[in-house]
Specification:
Layout lengths: L6 H7 L19 E3 L6 E3 L19 E4 L10 E4 L5 E4 L2 E4 L3 E5 L2 E6 L2 E6 L15 E4 L8 E4 L10 H4 L24 E7 L8 E8 L11
Antiparallel strand pairs: 1-2, 3-4, 5-6, 7-8, 8-9, 9-13, 10-11, 12-13
GO cellular component, one term: extracellular space
Main location: secreted
Protein name: WISP2 protein
Length: 223
Amino acid sequence: SAMALPPQVCAQLCQRPCYCPWVPPRCPRGSPLVLDGCGCCKICARRLGEPCDFLHVCDQSQGLVCDYSAVPAGTGATCNFEDSEEGCEVNGRVYRDGEVFQPSCKLLCRCLDGGFTCVPLCQEDVRLPTPDCPYPRRVEIPGKCCPEWVCEAQDQHLHRDAGAVSPLLPYPCQEWGTEWSACSVSCGIGFSTRISNQNRYCRLETQRRLCMARPCPALPAAS
């Protein structure tokens, strides 16, 4: 929770009259311009996990306050949710714990315990050359989010829908797959992989999804 400072401390930190730069700072994406703790100059609001103090205030529009609970441990105050609820920040936007969101049409993500995991909404199947489709190629289709496989003849460009040229399997496909691997990085955005045959061709393929075990520690604020 936020910690109020005594009036005499505020008087020492806040100079009157205000002396502010002529040009307000350019803030990173997701960080609005707000008045500093003295109500004097416009500054960039601190985001989730970033260091904060009396002057450098957190983004209250996202429900963030300056959390001093870690100060005795020597790590300094950081911006956190007022109710100490875990959250995650993606592309400058803060999501609450458990919230499901879609940063793009190709990904579906869920915020969990300060990190987030994503699953691809587009199939990542691999198509091998076949007699009826010797030159498969994955292309972006206007108006569609996910790329699709098309068949391209050697001498002429003949595009056909991938579903129309894939024959039905003559046998039932017994599903098989490994568990998702651990995240490839200890902090920040990484990848988790698994091997599975759960696709239209019942072929083993490596599937990937984005993951984040926890946010990386915020860099110290520039003095």
